[in-house]
Structures
1.
Amino acid sequence: MSLNKDYVKLKSKYREIFFQCLEEAKSTDNLVNVWHNEIKSALKSINTERAACHCGGCGVCCRFAVSEFSPAELELKAKNGDKYAFQFIQTFVPYSSINEAREIYPEYVEFLEKNTDGVFYIYYCPKVTDDNKCPDYENRPQICRDFPEVSGFFLPKTCSFTVWKLKSQSVWLKINAMAEIMNFMKKDL
Ligand code: SF4
Ligand code: SF4
């Protein structure tokens, strides 16, 4: 299945879960407390299951990091104290052409071309070795340790975290729907 179809399926799944949560909200007393506890425990179990998975070493995440920000924008954000931008720009450099990135993950480039306004930048880490090793694995940056996050969109097909990601997806969508509804209720008060 193409990433585009996966994306459409994901959006429709989110809609379905969102309406289920709305129904649940109507019949739940002390909703904010109940949902906060549910979210806390769901995140805990997502993280526990993630900790049981191990990187298979395909190297794609070291060679394919997408950002909506250009290198200059990331530099500026980093200068203004954005820690994520700082780590990102310390770790990754931009591909000189989109076709270079396409060689690594063609489906994702195609997806970005179809589903964005064309403003995206793809980066790679110049340190990753030809046999997909990190030369300083023990001291790799936090952003590398944190990959993949459950909030991430699509994993490379070769990623060994795929089973965990698919298993966590519905739970993650529910957490998002609950948060969206609670934010809406807060604004409405
Ligand atoms: S620092 Fe290491 S783990 Fe991080 S992207 Fe580069 S090679 Fe990969
Ligand atoms: S994409 Fe997944 S399996 Fe491949 S190197 Fe990154 S974390 Fe490891």
Note: The longest strand covers residues 121-124.
2.
Amino acid sequence: MNNSSILDREIPLCNLDDLEKRQAIELDINGRRLFAVRQEDQLYAYWNICPHLGIPLNWMPDRFLDLEGTLIQCSSHGALFQIDDGECIAGPCSGDRLMSVVLRREERMFYVAANQSMPAAPINLREQALADLEDN
Ligand code: FES
């Protein structure tokens, strides 16, 4: 089922200073999850979907980076992505890219820009397993 859609309004994401102490910030928009990572004075945002299996990248809230804090790392099979362009440089989806989220900046405040397409909601294996149990 393809349930992609267009984001029809701008949504506040965060102030740059909110990301001084943590790795990233997550946001849920109608079941589609995105995250943003700060690098220097810029924010890079992606939909939280690993190109390998189409599942969320993280297991822990707001944790998306490798031990060195220099690359985005998928928790499932360890794929590594560049922060500034989302390209996978190692792992099972090498050469693929994370889907970027368009942001609008107003001084130090960032917003998820309106009028951009949102991906289909990611596969939720837990919900799927519970639904399967109820069917049986
Ligand atoms: S699901 Fe991300 S590397 Fe496999």
Note: The first strand starts at residue 5 and ends at 7.
